[in-house]
Amino acid sequence: MSSISVAVVGRPNVGKSTLFNALAGSRIAIEADSPGATRDRVLYPLTIEGRTFDLVDTGGIGIVDSQKLEKQVERQITLAIEAADLLVFLVDSRDGITPLDREVAERLRRSGKKVLLTASKVDTQRIEDNLPSFHALGFGDALPVSAKQNRGIYDLEEAILALLPPEAPNAFGAGEGGEQLTKIALVGRRNVGKSTFINQISGTERVIVSDTPGTTRDSLDIAIRSDQGDFVLIDTAGLRKRGQMDDSLEFFGHMRTERAIRRADAVILMLDAMEEIGKVDKRIASFKTISHNSRLRA
Ligand code: GDP
Question: Given a cut of 50, is residue 32 above it in pLDDT?
Answer without folding.
Answer: no
